[in-house]
Amino acid sequence: MLEDLRAGLRPAEIMCLIDQRGPMVNSMRRAQIKAAIAEAKFPAWLYPAHKSGHHGTDYGMGWQTLVQTVLKYSMADLPIELGEARPIVLTKAQAVKIMECNHSRYSGIKLWHAKEGRVLMTAGRITTSVGHTRAFYDRKKEFAAGREVPCHETLKKLLASKPQFYTTYALKLAAWRLWSDPDNRRDDCSLRVEPLLCVHDSLDMQAREEDRVWAGAKIGDWFMNPVEIAGTVVIIPADGKRGKDGGLEEGVRL
């Protein structure tokens, strides 16, 4: 998956292509996949369905939840005329196919689920590469088909825990660098770029108009923080919007 992302491919678009052409897509070179996606004509519902399916399958979502999730997001912005609404209603067969497309491309997901399931049942806690530990106090085991298996609801929380942590960790590193960067201090020790609000996946900042260009370059630098995840050193990319007086209209890539 990481190599797909590095090649500029969106996993959900690859899933759409697999949905149309079958698993043979997985034997294609990435340049061929990119060209095939550019030429493909996907129905309007297919990409949002696979986008939800890709993320949900990664974290143990079942087909019923996938159907509900896709419908919910398709109805998030209802038009004034409800007759113009375009809800996406998946059948069980379509939802299962979406999940199968994801597993056909990224077969390691099931292995990861099994590994983390064993961790849940034996240790009941996980530790990240930077030493952060989370213990799970929910039910860790349940019985299915006469055998002991990881509790599905708790496992879903565990699977989402590290991605959530690393997103927050990368954000807090950027906020720390903003605060501690001596170039971000004026002679009176006030900040040129000021943090306003920091939540788990976003950081709101403000700066004076005359510092706009300088701040844009600095913010990008503050987010360039290598972190080790599963033995691989990566930089988690960030993007955002900027504007005047709280109106965030201009998209930027950091």
User: Quick one: overall form?
Assistant: globular
Give me the side-by-side strand order of the main sheet: 1-2
Rounded to the nearest angstrom, the distance between the terminal CA atoms is 22 Å
What is the radius of gyration? 22 Å
Give the count of helical stretches.
9
Helix content: 40-55%
In short:
Helix content is 47%, strand content 17%. The protein is of the alpha+beta class.
Describe the structure.
With 254 residues, the protein is of the alpha+beta class. 47% of the residues lie in helices and 17% in strands. The chain contains nine helices and ten strands. The strands form five sheets. Strands 1-2 form a two-stranded antiparallel ribbon. A hairpin with a 2-residue loop joins strand 5 and strand 6. The longest helix has 29 residues, at 152-180.
Task: Please write out the topology.
Elements: H1 2-6, H2 11-21, H3 30-39, H4 46-58, H5 63-74, H6 92-105, H7 108-122, E1 125-127, E2 133-135, E3 141-144, E4 147-150, H8 152-180, E5 193-199, E6 202-207, H9 212-222, E7 226-229, E8 232-235, E9 239-242, E10 250-253
Antiparallel strand pairs: 1-2, 3-4, 5-6, 7-8, 9-10
Comma- or semicolon-separated keywords:
254 residues; alpha+beta; two-stranded antiparallel sheet; two-stranded antiparallel ribbon; 17% strand; globular
